[in-house]
């Protein structure tokens, strides 16, 4: 609601280490306040609050292995939440992101199985297909000027239908065949779905990828020209165009980044579960978007960070698993989830308001 | 501005061509194991000739959500009966009860010769089933609605009593010496799934609790089940309500270091392999293929010979049939064709 008006839609560039300001008012604004005004700080505090709460409520969570489970759940959401957040900062969002994950997994699984090919072949083709879906979204959007809600809703429905119909047509069933005994599977599994030992705790490789992608996205957003373009097209498309930002290029590539994320998560699902059911993925797009919004990205664009959604996804994973770890009555599961998320977002909002006041 | 992006897309063109060429080269990389080639020996589904009775049309309207392996098997059974009986099968499905009612209305409008319908939410279908009766179209029920089919004036019913199936599973757990079980529900609010867990609770002498997971997101299913196993180390049995979730639960057991055993409702081809290997203890099979097959065949028999399956009084039960290590070999062959 008033969130959009309250937050500063300013293009956030890294504070240049220039000469010290002499203006009294700016000196009054302490470092702490300036830190608090960052988009990710509210969600960071929210995540800490949720974390501490569950550490107290759920004793088993204090075990390292349990944390690994929470991080795993967070990472599968978080990897997608990153490009979704960048896209949102760029002023658009993508409803097809959830089923696009399954499309990618289905493509790779079916292609390798049906043609009895090395699974890497399927992985590569799936990447091309996922990027193409993203490019298509972006291209239609820019060509027609339709809102992204409409364009990606259409893609969402098309992909949902195609996932089912093509799978059925090709395999005769609605799930893909098991590819775990095929050439290349073990390598691909090592890359996308393995786990490793850290002091006796099994950590999923997706957690590492998640953090690597987050660091990469942060760097792109804050240190590159492309990052500035993202903020610019999200802030105001017209003024961005007027100052020479390649709007079409930026938006199409942002959608393609979402395609890349969908591919990555899709490959994780394929290589971790060996088969994919074609009806999966529906509804996940809202969770990705939620993680980005909780992470401080504005639905209206032009404001946000890449690290915020990391905490957003963590918070989601934390609440999701924390309820189970706490052993609460599962009938209330969804209600708990909603209340905790709203609470966390309110902390987020409060911190941002307090920090940007004056 | 547009010009620069056009220039860019032209610059992309060689890259795309390169990727395509690379893809074609890679096509040489065929897999030496697994894949379709390895499975190709298995032949097509069952076929039992064809009736020369007059052509009739049957509508099968279910509450299937898209892309669910279970319903695919029901439909295959229905199609097999339709092919054999010289029946034209019109299949439609919608998980939303109101939409399902509209689909039944659609079948009535088409003046089909028979309707087979699932009663996941019986009350929502009441009025439209009355209309079918008035139009003189015979209606049979299948899969869900065991408690309601007679009240709604249906002619026959083919399916499994979910709570009887649950009770059977509960007894089996007692035999296996289970003490503490968790029932994993992959769709919150689904009546049939809840009835299964309630059935288990009725006969199971140990303690049991339900766990809800997000069935459309496998990684989340996996981590939620893992979390539950870590939270309570005493859990010795996991019960899943669908085959794909059983496969995921096995991974969760591995990961959590728990010693819990996995048992499940429903089958598919991956699952039979897991039972053979001993990863999964047993499956309670309600024989979805049989449900679809018998529903269509029942309508054909009524039309051509005036027969009532179950005498029009009792449901025809298709489950619970247990599949475990002792009999999985016989079932696996059919499961690999996607019909069990």
TrEMBL record, chain A:
The keyword Cell membrane applies. Part of the binding-protein-dependent transport system for D-xylose. Probably responsible for the translocation of the substrate across the membrane. InterPro entries: ABC_transp_permease (IPR001851). Pfam families: BPD_transp_2. This is Xylose transport system permease protein XylH. It is found in: Cell membrane. The keyword Zinc does not apply. GO terms for molecular function: transmembrane transporter activity. The chain crosses the membrane at residues 35-58, 70-88, 95-113, 119-141, 148-166, 203-222, 243-266, 286-303, 310-326, 332-351. Its main location: membrane. Keywords: Cell inner membrane, Cell membrane, Membrane, Sugar transport, Transmembrane, Transmembrane helix, Transport. GO terms for cellular component: plasma membrane. Residues 1-27 are annotated as: Disordered. It is a multi-pass membrane protein. It comes from the Bacteria. It comes from Streptomyces rubrogriseus.
UniProtKB/TrEMBL annotation, chain B:
Residues 1-27 form the signal peptide. Its main location: other. Pfam families: Peripla_BP_4. The keyword Secreted does not apply. Residues 29-51 are annotated as: Disordered. PROSITE patterns: PROKAR_LIPOPROTEIN. GO terms for cellular component: outer membrane-bounded periplasmic space. Residues 59-301 form the Periplasmic binding protein domain. GO terms for molecular function: carbohydrate binding. It is found in: Cell envelope. Keywords: Signal. Belongs to the bacterial solute-binding protein 2 family. This is Sugar ABC transporter substrate-binding protein.
